[in-house]
Amino acid sequence: MPYVARAEAIDDHRVDIHEPTPGPRDTRWRRPLIADPDLRVVLIGWPPGFVTVPHHHPHAVETFQVVSGHLGFRLDDRAEIELGPGGLTIARRGEIHGLRVLGDQPLVFIACVAPNLDIPDEQVDVPDRWRDWRPSDEATP
What domains are defined for the chain? Predict the structure, then answer.
């Protein structure tokens, strides 16, 4: 997930993630909430069936908390897990991970990345063990 400049984010001491939720149910959208050199927090919406490219962050830790919908999360060699509303997971620095929307409802989740560096911080890596993972066209985490 790309760097977020402070001017792009709501960046207030109080952010309501439910007002407004941008984007129709059939498109991808992202709403930067907080941006700081140490952390970026982004509200993200994906349509049903969306899948990311397996990737890792060599310089950052990333967490994902589901607001609505269902997230399929796969990490390194582990089996895919399903997270529903309130579910929280982490991809530590260097861990290959992939995300996908499960079910027929859109997914809305909060992604937090630390630190918030203005450098390329994602490495796409599709190891053999991920051959069954089918990213959506033009999928970016």
Answer: 28-119 (2.60.120.10)
